[in-house]
């Protein structure tokens, strides 16, 4: 049976990434993008064959396959990174994040010579580290995993190389979300969140509720464009903050 190596991320801190212009995500889901970068190491190449990313939260667990094939992590340093996976995760308390490596295809290249990276048997069951961060529905998160090649590769007494991953997380940009309701429900407005030259649109649902996930932090004008005979309405100065859901309450649309 093929062995799978699991290791979790030490000292993880979650952070939010800037938004996509998409207002259709559920408020019960948070989108997590996992990226990998590298701290310098004195090697020609460090190849990791990553199989999956596993995210465990109080709302449920998600496993996503990594389809990039073996990755030379030394190509991603000095501000460069590569996306491993992106997945919608039930909102709730983040409990654990793991990377799952194939047991073969992990290697280090030194002075042009390739060596297999062996993983000690103690890691086959996974190093489980609890992570205490909240996943807010409608907010997009980025985990930038900084792999420390210099500390993660250990030379044994018989000249072999062991992989003992040392990883830290680097905070990224933050996004927020915006919600509210319209009255009367029969005004059926289209709703637009406008900041500068950027406009994000949605519609109120059958209960009159509107929701904008993944908005960059800033001050917005919210435009309501209802059906006739109701009048267009604009509200200025709506502030969206990082990692929070701004609730506008009930907005009354008049004729």
Short characterization:
With 255 residues, this protein is an all-beta fold. It contains one helix and 23 strands.
Layout: helices, strands, pairs:
Blueprint (H helix, E strand, L loop, with lengths): L3 E5 L6 E2 L12 E11 L5 E4 L1 E8 L2 E6 L5 E2 L9 E9 L1 E11 L4 E4 L2 E6 L14 E3 L4 E9 H4 E3 L5 E3 L3 E4 L4 E9 L6 E6 L2 E6 L5 E8 L1 E8 L7 E8 L4 E8 L3
Parallel strand pairs: 3-13, 11-15, 17-23
Antiparallel strand pairs: 1-9, 2-13, 3-8, 4-7, 4-10, 5-6, 5-9, 9-12, 10-11, 13-16, 14-15, 17-20, 18-19, 18-21, 21-22
- Cα end-to-end separation: 70 Å
Q: Report helical residue fraction.
A: under 10%
Q: What number is the mean pLDDT?
A: 80
Strand count, sense and barrel status of the largest sheet are:
6 strands, mixed
Q: Poorly predicted ranges (pLDDT <50, ≥5 residues)?
A: 1-24, 121-129
Q: Treating each run of at least 4 consecutive H or I residues as one helix, how many helices?
A: 1
How do the SSEs run, as a string of H and E? EEEEEEEEEEEEEHEEEEEEEEEE
Strand portion: over 45%
Strand neighbour order, sheet with most strands:
7-4-10-11-15-14
Number of domains: 2
Q: What structural category arises from helix and sheet content? A: mainly beta
Number of strands: 23
Radius of gyration: 23 Å
Global geometry: elongated
Protein name: DUF4382 domain-containing protein
Domain DUF4382: 30-165
InterPro entries: Carb-bd-like_fold, DUF4382
């Amino acid at each position: 049976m093929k062995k799978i190596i699991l290791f979790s991320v030490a000292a993880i801190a979650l952070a939010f990434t800037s938004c996509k212009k998409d207002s259709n995500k559920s408020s019960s889901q948070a989108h997590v993008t996992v990226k990998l970068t590298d701290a310098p190491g004195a090697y020609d190449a460090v190849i990791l064959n990553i199989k999956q990313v596993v995210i465990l939260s109080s709302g449920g667990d998600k496993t996503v396959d990594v389809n990039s094939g073996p990755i030379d992590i030394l190509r991603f340093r000095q501000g460069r990174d590569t996306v491993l996976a992106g997945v919608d995760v039930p909102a709730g308390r983040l409990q654990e994040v793991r990377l799952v490596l194939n047991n073969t295809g992990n290697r280090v290249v030194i002075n042009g010579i390739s060596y297999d990276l062996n993983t000690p048997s103690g890691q086959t069951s996974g190093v489980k580290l609890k992570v205490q961060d909240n996943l807010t529905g409608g907010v997009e998160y980025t985990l930038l995993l900084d792999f420390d090649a210099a500390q993660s590769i250990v030379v044994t007494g018989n000249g072999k190389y062991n992989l003992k991953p040392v990883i830290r997380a680097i905070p990224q940009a933050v996004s927020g979300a915006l919600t509210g309701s319209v009255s009367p429900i029969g005004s059926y407005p289209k709703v637009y969140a406008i900041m500068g030259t950027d406009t994000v649109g949605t519609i109120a649902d059958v209960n009159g509720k509107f929701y904008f996930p993944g908005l960059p932090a800033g001050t917005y004008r919210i435009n309501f464009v209802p059906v006739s005979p109701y009048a267009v309405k604009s509200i200025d100065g709506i502030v969206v903050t990082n990692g929070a859901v701004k609730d506008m309450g009930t907005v009354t649309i008049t004729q």
